[in-house]
Design a protein that fits this description.
The structure is a homotetramer. Chain A is α/β, with parallel strands linked by helices. Chain A has helices spanning 13-22, 33-46, 58-69, 83-86, 91-96, 113-121, 149-162, 173-180, 219-228, 237-247, 251-270, 289-297, 320-331; strands spanning 51-55, 74-79, 100-104, 131-138, 165-170, 195-198, 209-213, 282-286, 303-304, 309-313. Chain A has 2 domains: 11-250, Aspartate Aminotransferase, domain 2 (3-Layer(aba) Sandwich), CATH 3.40.640; 252-331, Aspartate Aminotransferase, domain 1, CATH 3.90.1150.10. Chain A contains 13 helices and 10 strands. In chain A, a hairpin with a 4-residue loop joins strand 9 (303-304) and strand 10 (309-313). Chain A starts with 12 loop residues before the first helix and ends with a helix. The interface between A and D is medium-sized, with 19 and 19 residues.
Chain lengths: 333, 333, 333, 333
């Protein structure tokens, strides 16, 4: 049983069925029936008119979303441990044509308005410095923490005040919404978010993320950038079909709830060993290397996270009975 | 029955099975078992050591391949109707960071050494002009014509002589090899090709093309560019599995032979209406708009190709009995 | 006496004096007194409110001007022999982040609305192709021909109709206006031009061109791009001072008239040997290589222009008595 | 008397004379006599074969130099207050096509091997992160501090060890060498520096910096990038002439010594008010806003530097008798 990444999980049965159903002749690129349903499906979900483009990776979604908000001579505020800063090999820089990421410190990889303001205060308003143009947060974030509607709204307020576009990296958006058990609108457009990378691959999808524009006018330019980036798949219907299947009957939430529940089980077992509260599907646990070795000897796999810690990630397919043995092993340390 | 694009075809059964088999837990990105087999499988196929990266689109494969061969201040020679020039929204310019495409005229979208030399002769060797750095051909090409080993070797010779990297857009590589009925090595590295975009999606795949480096040292940098372009899929194993399935037992050739045979049937029916010899899976036919309308009324769909012509594309799933009715309708015009 | 380039000429006395006068302590970058006068001086000259940025080269002016009008996924229409296409090593591609130049044929390097429309007609309105976004002409052009106000207005009309930004490469703008003997407004904003690269270096300046925005709102973004391109000189006052000196008392026109007169003298001497009418300060003459050698033996230097032709360029410092010997030598061939 | 920037100073007499002497007909771009002498002059100065390109700004020199050392998917280590990070509007990102700057903390804007190693230790060696490719320091630096040969050699050793290109921003290189009173080779190539932006504008030049390649093979590509960036001035001889005049008879050192001496005078007057030891030509002084106002009332101009500090910069033209009144005023505070 592996817990090193939700990317390691298989695709869920409904997604596999959707792919099978999509396996017929249809129009190429995004002119097929499924792709054409996306705008409507997401508009319904969010209760506001949105425009949606599928892409094949979260990195592409993030980079395209940021490029829609930030010019080449602009800057993007984010946490110093944000995925866009640490794990995308400069994709935001590539798609924005060289914008700068201005990184902010903060506990648990959470960006606060205070930290952002502090960084903004160091930026002069002249052509010798890049111009702050966007702000990006990850929800649920890199340490499995979830921003609440109020926290996001405070950042949204800052964005409005300073003329920043607001992007959310939602690779684990479903886990965040499942944790909050609220309306997805409250953590996005109602809180000021302009563009959302809505992830499905970590949550039971195979290939296909949705780039959601709450400012629909941004989508047309991005459609060009998507093609130019090599991200307009010729058989896009297989992506659209997966995404529609995930939206149907709240499957995206159900999958995320399973993953969150599995993580909660581990978090409870770990108790005070947890580096952060377990809110979504990631659990960071303080263990010695001996202890880690013992867990691995028990057949569990996970990443080391430096300095006597490990990361365990659960996913939609981890049922309680799959996770219990690991929870027990942790508790027994 | 639709003939407007091979992108419209479904994925073939073996590909669907491969995807189902890949649907288990495995390492993310390209560290899974299938991805790791690619280098070996293609090295065997081509009889030389190659390095292979999967990507999700042909446009990404082309743009990444060209970026490996051409600096930002370089130029890429290609036919003026090449897909990279006409249909990729500037993806080569994006990935090369602004290289220029120097386009050459030529019958049937075929690039000849003579046409290339003529364009090269207009380029001065000074810093005021971009420096010719690569040459790209499409095989089978945009009009369904196939370059023979000798034709490619002549271009390869030109490349060696002038220090140009040699790229082949093989979105329909399988159709070309099936038509030639020869060794894939003869139309690639033995003829001087450095990088091949080996297409599978138009030939029965769902998502996944192979970028093949006959100069393996180019792959390492490209792996960074791939990630940076948002093309390192987190569940890459589904792409690798498809590609391996296509290579297994020559499925890629069998599929291409089916498509080519279907096209040949249409070509024979069209006779002198054909704009170009039918070699691969594309048929360009001279018909009046009345005639086109009559064919469409018969239930056949295809693209207009301007000026009294239409394009019909066959694919792996067009069996003779599917195509015969259209052939009959064409013959009856 | 050299006639190979107006770049080879010295700076004129008034420019040298202006530089000497500017050689005192003043604010850095473009916050000095001279730089601040530019907007006003050019607004007066053109009879409309403009915004002006100095840059050190015509290539920088062109590339920055085009970047203000064309997105990375856009295309710029120009003549196939335009300087921006042939002689700037891809600077427009660099500053636009990879836009494509769509080149049009045409006699004497002149772009006609008909030729532009023909190229535009080949562009589909979909994301697979770059989107035509700007049109650029050179006035006076690469063959010393001058666009009249009516010709420019016809192109301006096309731009309005098709939503294209209109850029003019005015490396030899002074020579064009001197030839037309009209109002500079008539060949620029009144005819629909949005951005002008107003050249001074070829016309008696040392270093410094003016990028003139007839749509002032484009200047603010460009100021960032200028800095980012390394073109915000720390002692910009020396550029501003030169430009102001050139505008003072119509020096720019007087210099251009001298150059044009010198060229006219050569053109008259060459008679039917001229490849193009001599309108500005460039003369293209049909001569055998023997004849060219004879002229060179007489102490005159100029560029070969391929195929039995040579190019002679006059400049502000060529007085009639300097040029007459060459005119005589040409007439005597 | 202004002390806010050495960019505010006039050009020195020898530079003005050199410009006047260059004001004759000569070959355009960099094919004139002066430009051709640069390689030789700098090779002599440094005692090793170098290749040199003039450019018009320090920002262009830095960005081109870094682009020669770092690919788009690379990273450049520098101090968090480095000019390339703080004051160039992302020019390094523009010219490298989106590389990332990895910034290090450190007293007085000095980069230490320890700080660099600490940042390097956080970078994983995989394609998800940009690859450290270059390291850049400023000498004399942003706070007027000078790196000694040993300090530079230690960084050079780190670069060799980690495969990093080593760039030096020498906007005030002359001030550093004047302070050290040593061989310029000892603070450059002998210590491992690959590329130097050798500044002249802040040191009595008008327009023109030298980009010096201690690895000559890097220059050829950079010549293309320079043109592409719009930095190949058509009358480059005026830049080359200035630079040659500065090298002649050690004028660059004499000018720097004057500036340093003036700064030393101020530093001595300021005593313990100095934020940093005064080594080059910048003096940072702790003063209350009242005190700053009093100094300004005395006719002295300088920049506020936040938090009760001001920056005073001296330059080649500040003679002791010009500076003494300010020194007295400071001492009298």
């Amino acid at each position: 049983m592996q817990f090193f990444s939700d990317n390691a999980a298989p695709a869920c049965p409904q997604v596999m069925e959707a792919i099978a159903s999509a396996n017929r002749q249809d129009r190429p690129y995004d002119s097929d029936r499924s792709s054409k349903e996306l705008d409507g499906a997401f508009s319904t979900l969010f209760g506001i008119e949105v425009r949606v483009l599928w892409v094949s990776t979260g990195t592409a979604a993030n980079a395209l979303g940021l490029a829609a908000l930030c010019p080449p001579h602009g800057a993007i505020l984010c946490h110093q441990q944000a995925h866009i800063q640490e794990d995308e090999c400069g994709a935001p820089e590539f798609y924005t044509h060289g914008a700068k990421l201005l990184t902010c410190p903060g506990e648990g990889a959470k960006l606060t308005p205070e930290a952002a303001r502090k960084v903004l205060a160091t930026v002069r308003d002249d052509v010798h410095q890049v111009r702050p143009s966007a702000l990006s947060i990850t929800n649920a974030n890199e340490y499995g923490l979830v921003y609440t509607p109020d926290e996001i709204a405070a950042l949204g307020e800052l964005c409005r005040e300073r003329g920043l576009g607001f992007h959310m990296d939602g690779a684990r958006f479903a886990n965040a919404v499942a944790y909050l058990d609220g309306d997805p609108a409250d953590v996005t457009w109602r809180a000021g978010v302009d563009v959302l990378s809505f992830g499905f691959v970590k949550n039971g999808g195979m290939i296909g993320e949705a780039l959601v524009f709450f400012r629909p006018e941004l989508a047309a330019e991005t459609a060009y950038r998507r093609k130019r980036g090599g991200h307009l798949l010729s058989k896009g219907r297989y992506l659209a079909a997966q995404i529609l299947a995930m939206l149907k009957d709240g499957l995206w939430l159900a999958n995320a709830r399973s993953a969150n529940a599995a993580a909660a089980l581990l978090g409870t077992a770990a108790g005070s060993r947890c580096l952060y509260p377990v809110q979504a599907n990631e659990v960071f646990i303080r263990v010695s290397s001996d202890e880690a070795a013992r867990l691995r000897a028990g057949g569990f796999d996970f990443y080391d996270w430096g300095d006597g810690a490990v990361r365990m990630v659960t996913s939609w397919h981890h049922r309680a009975e799959d996770v219990q043995p690991l929870a027990d092993a942790i508790a027994a340390l």
